[in-house]
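Dear H.,

Thanks for agreeing to be a second pair of eyes. The structure we're designing against is below in token form, covering all 499 positions.
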């Protein structure tokens, strides 16, 4: 099995570089024929002439930026394994007087994490400074510095990010910036020439070329995928860079490689602009992506048929193309439309879907509440239904990132004295309770929050992140575990949905 090496860490951000440009080396003239409209542009190209991509490079290069990522050094408390012999020499009577067991164990220790830096790429999409890049290029950054091709530097802030599609939107304070023109990625064709532009391996402003190798690829690396595949060399520093067509228009954001070694071996993948545009609009308008759901899980028909054959089963679904429905989620849009396990989805809004990437690409452009027309086979008979898409929470409401304000309380990290008294190493004390979710749930002043949704709460930022993630999840609930100053433990469930 081939290994997908996806450098989705800030230290090893990646993107696509296309490795060569081939010429049409025709040694003899082909017979003259009447060219159809679809082939006219190809037929009119002089024999033996290379594809000229200098115009595309000149147009797109100024729009691609270098991004420097910095995560500052931090002090963290960790548990480390102790050495029983070390314990004995440090405290030889510990076993008698209870100060140490002499048998090993764990102890808490403060460590300082190293400062981390990495580089990536981004694409300017508006003259006032909005830049698209990958989520893994900016995730966890304390500082982001953007450098333009003319060496101007700007500090950037994160407007929003989406781990599911691996896209992020950042902003710099600039005017009249060289924004790229965005093309519809649905219009690109397999075999079409493209340029990849970015900053690989410290080689800033690098342009390489290749072709579109495939569309609507899924790799299992992100939650929602419909990649443009290209014969592109992907190396560290290129993530978030531009994949552009021969007119210098953006068709994709370079993201990852397919490799057994971790370095370029022939195939790279870009997030199509049709998906990017929807994510950017949502991040600007709502602060989070409004993700529409049909409510099924499944696989390509061919994959399902092949897996059944390996088990010795003969399967006839009436087609070898489309999406086999393996499961229908309860109370989902698909269930309401009457779709059942074993059905095969073959069209969405009149567009043919041959594989799961086709379906993902179409639905990723929709929002909850949108209606789509599904054509599917039920017992090999074609049927059509109109489906109203829902969000992950099972309704059509706008999903927004909740802030700490929704809890209606003030918090602080517990003091050293509290740690010693309660024999705990971390926690957040509820300092004040006003009107809000905390009061509704019965949480009182003085309660110490230890865990939220099984994650330790060491800082107020940890709680903010927990609220943010829960508010946009399938189950928007905070499960809080903690204790009172008396040592009594308690547990609360806080529903973040607006009733």
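And this is the sequence the design step returned. I haven't edited it by hand at all.
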């Amino acid at each position: 099995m081939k290994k997908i090496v996806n450098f989705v860490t800030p230290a090893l951000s990646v993107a696509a570089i296309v490795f060569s440009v081939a010429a049409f080396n025709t040694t003899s003239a082909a017979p003259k024929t009447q060219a159809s409209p679809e082939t006219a542009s190809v037929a009119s190209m002089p024999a033996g002439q290379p594809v000229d991509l200098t115009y595309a490079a000149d147009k797109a290069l100024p729009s691609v930026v270098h991004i420097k990522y910095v995560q500052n050094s931090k002090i963290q408390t960790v548990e480390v394994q102790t050495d029983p012999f070390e314990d004995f020499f440090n405290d030889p009577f510990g076993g008698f007087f209870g100060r140490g067991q002499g048998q090993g164990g764990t102890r808490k220790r403060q460590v300082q994490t190293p400062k981390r830096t990495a580089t990536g790429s981004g694409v300017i999409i508006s003259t006032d400074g909005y830049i698209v890049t990958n989520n893994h290029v900016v995730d966890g950054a304390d500082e982001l510095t953007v450098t333009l091709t003319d060496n101007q530097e700007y500090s950037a802030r994160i407007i929003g990010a989406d781990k599911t599609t691996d896209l992020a939107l950042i902003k710099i304070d600039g005017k009249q910036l060289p924004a790229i023109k965005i093309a519809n990625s649905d219009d690109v064709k397999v075999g079409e020439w493209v340029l990849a532009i970015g900053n690989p391996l410290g080689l800033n402003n690098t342009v390489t070329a290749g072709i579109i190798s495939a569309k609507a690829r899924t790799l299992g690396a992100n939650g929602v995928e419909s990649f443009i595949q290209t014969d592109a060399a992907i190396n560290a520093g290129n993530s978030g860079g531009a994949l552009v067509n021969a007119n210098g228009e953006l068709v994709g954001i370079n993201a990852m490689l397919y490799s057994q070694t971790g370095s370029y071996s022939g195939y790279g993948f870009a997030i199509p602009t049709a998906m990017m545009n929807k994510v950017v609009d949502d991040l600007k308008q709502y602060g989070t992506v409004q993700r529409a759901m049909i409510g099924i899980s499944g696989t390509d028909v061919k994959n399902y048929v092949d897996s059944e054959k390996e088990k010795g089963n003969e399967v006839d679904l009436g087609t070898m193309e489309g999406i086999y429905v393996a499961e229908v989620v309860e109370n989902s849009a698909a269930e309401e439309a009457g779709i059942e396990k074993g059905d095969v989805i073959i069209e969405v809004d009149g567009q043919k879907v041959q594989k799961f990437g086709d379906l993902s690409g179409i639905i990723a452009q929709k929002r909850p509440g949108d209606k789509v027309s599904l054509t599917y086979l039920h017992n090999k008979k074609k049927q059509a239904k109109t489906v109203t898409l829902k969000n992950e929470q099972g309704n059509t409401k706008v999903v927004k990132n909740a802030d700490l304000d929704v809890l209606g309380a003030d918090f602080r990290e517990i003091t050293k004295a509290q740690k010693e008294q309660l024999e705990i190493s971390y926690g957040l004390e509820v300092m004040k309770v006003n009107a809000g979710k905390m009061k509704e749930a019965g949480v009182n002043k003085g309660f110490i929050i230890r865990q939220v949704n099984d994650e330790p709460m060491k800082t107020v930022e940890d709680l903010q992140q927990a609220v943010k993630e829960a508010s946009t999840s399938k189950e928007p609930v905070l499960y809080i575990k903690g204790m009172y100053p008396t040592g009594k433990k308690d547990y609360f469930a806080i529903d973040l949905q607006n009733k």
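Two observations from my side: Residues 273-285 form the longest helix (13 residues). The first strand starts at residue 14 and ends at 18.

Warmly,
E.
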